[in-house]
Specification:
With 123 residues, the protein is mainly β. It has strands at residues 3-7, 11-13, 18-25, 33-39, 46-51, 58-60, 68-73, 78-83, 92-99, 101-103, 106-108, 112-113, 117-122.
């Protein structure tokens, strides 16, 4: 099992940027696919982005495509989500997850979840 801890959330203005980090412990993530999700109270958890274990394949939800970029640094056992051109609609809690592989707009075989980090975007 992998323990995941998100960080980097906070307050940004519309049009601004934030970078989220997901630090893994317990084992290396070099052979694990990773993804980002978000969920507001009373809403379904929404897929945001995913990246293969080698970093060569990525997937993005239409709502964030062109604005967000997922990347990973296996040497640091960390996955990132660079969020640019932020909108108030992006305000919610973001979660990091590990999985077996990346499919079409999905992270297959989710094994672990982080506890989330809050992103707030002001108008």
């Amino acid at each position: 099992q992998v323990q995941l801890v998100e960080s980097g959330g906070g307050l940004a203005q519309a049009g601004g940027s934030l970078r989220l980090s997901c630090a893994a412990s317990g084992r290396t993530i070099s052979t694990i696919a990773m993804g980002w999700f978000r969920q507001a109270p009373g809403k379904e958890r929404e897929f945001v982005a995913a990246i293969s274990w080698g970093g060569g394949s990525t997937q993005y939800a239409d709502s964030v495509k062109g604005r967000f970029t997922v990347s990973r640094d296996n040497a640091k056992n960390t996955v990132y989500l660079q969020m640019n051109s932020l909108k108030p609609e992006d305000t919610t809690v973001y979660y990091c997850a590990s999985g077996l592989n990346v499919g079409f707009l999905v992270l297959n075989g989710i094994q672990d979840w982080g506890k989330g980090t809050l992103v707030t975007v002001s108008p």
